[in-house]
Amino acid sequence: MEFDGSVLIRSTADLKMSTEVQHTQRVTLHCRQCSTVLGDSLGVCGEVKRLDSIICLKVTNDVVVSYATASREGEMANCIYSSLKCCCCRSAVGIVIHSAPSRLAAVRSMFLLYKPNISCYILDSSSMVTASALTFDTKTCKESMNEVRQQLEAQLQQMLRVKSRLDDSSITAEINK
After folding, report:
1. 144 by DSSP, 3-state: which?
2. What pTM, to 2 d.p., does this model score?
3. In this model, does residue 76 exceed pLDDT 90?
């Protein structure tokens, strides 16, 4: 473990965990410069690998949205976006895309937090790690539907077993009369 300012940090070498954040795993997202809370895993809905960013539906009031800017170069070419800054240290923590070509259309109006500028506090293990050490991939709809189907089929099998037992016990009760 390390002491960094006023925060006790368990280094990633000491941490035995999956690098993939599960939907059941609770994580808070912090500014890497000053540790201000910027969001949590309940607002996370994936990541954009080409922008090295976490996609969030919502962030805290400690995230300040700047004026819109147009970009003509790089991955953000032909985009209009606003920068996101931490209200405490004024560090750049991400962007919100307002207008973009089709390759980035799916993330318009969502908060994109730059993974290199974000730290994550993992509640289950009480540890702070860099967001770059984690993945925030989401399951496809097909994967989620297959999981639900398997759960429903298991419940159906259990209900059929219970029904069979009830039928057997009612037959036995009638025979004993």
Report:
1. helix
2. 0.67
3. no
